[in-house]
């Protein structure tokens, strides 16, 4: 154990998670590259918080300039904050024309659930059966993708999210859709029967913690219609899928043809500066506002607003959403080549700059094939040894998770793919070789 790790455990305790068998001590970042304490360079194919690139000079300068001018809480008029609200709201669809600023994704989801509960006079919440939306008490009671002592609240029902490349592979899409919507109907009925009613559906449009499920066309729209039909509100958690990550839209919900009643934001918003927010309609805010004095000391302070504005500027000026789309095509093609060559890889998942590939314990056509988290872990560690950073997601932690900063381009994509190919070609990665016929 290094001195720093010991000191960390003595102060932060041993429970704050660290990546990798040999945790990395990173001291610098620029663009899609990171530098460790020994001067080693790492290709960052994992981090979505430095959305427009590590230490982007325009974001750094905007933060520094505003911090050197004025920073304080949110009870004074400030043009920076209003400029940001206007610019951000211009990216949303009607009727989302108001924003409440927060400091994190958790705060945003907590507030969205509170607004929904007051609007509906109900407590019932629908989430997927393997998801994560934050760390507050209300969200811990709805957390299914991480260990929490609270357990599920009696007012929470979980939905099995279909996956046409996973559990539902080979089944007729229309049938998969009908079954999934029937399950949602039953969950709503059970909330009603037990007196909770329906307050909100909270979902991540990429189903990222779940493992990047490929859902049937119309699934999210169908869920939204059921929820609204039962008097509930739809909360789109865009902490992972927002700000152009999917390459095909600025907001993940746009890929599903549904405009949520509330959209929650966090991670990429301030490029690492803690910024979050909830977008909603004036009608919803006008209902919540007069009944609650919602005051957030740091949420929407001038420095946060400067960071958020700079992120929007860079996204526009460097055309990063289009770049994510284009690079995404290169990565997908490369991963598909790898899948064709390695029969223990599952189908390529994801879109834009959020990718996954599942590693299985047997050839994918073998009906006994199961997720192989141990092999996935070895691949993640092997990539780290080659100075490429990725991670794992999914119910079994068996899906390679690749989600780089948005400036990740075709050159970096080739680097990632080459390193991955060499690792997959090498033995041993489990009970049978990863390469077909090897
Ligand atoms: C989809 C989603 N929502 C919400 C959160 C919580 O955000 P934060 O850690 O900023 O509170 C996360 C964090 O990983 C997330 O992935």
Automatic annotation (TrEMBL):
Keyword Nuclease attached: no
Please provide the record's keywords in A-Z order.
Aminotransferase, Pyridoxal phosphate, Transferase
Gene Ontology molecular-function annotations: pyridoxal phosphate binding; transaminase activity
Pfam families, alphabetized:
Aminotran_3 (PF00202)
Top-level taxonomic group:
Bacteria
Q: Which family does it belong to?
A: Belongs to the class-III pyridoxal-phosphate-dependent aminotransferase family.
Q: What is this protein called?
A: Aminotransferase class III-fold pyridoxal phosphate-dependent enzyme
Which species is the source of this protein? Xylanimonas allomyrinae
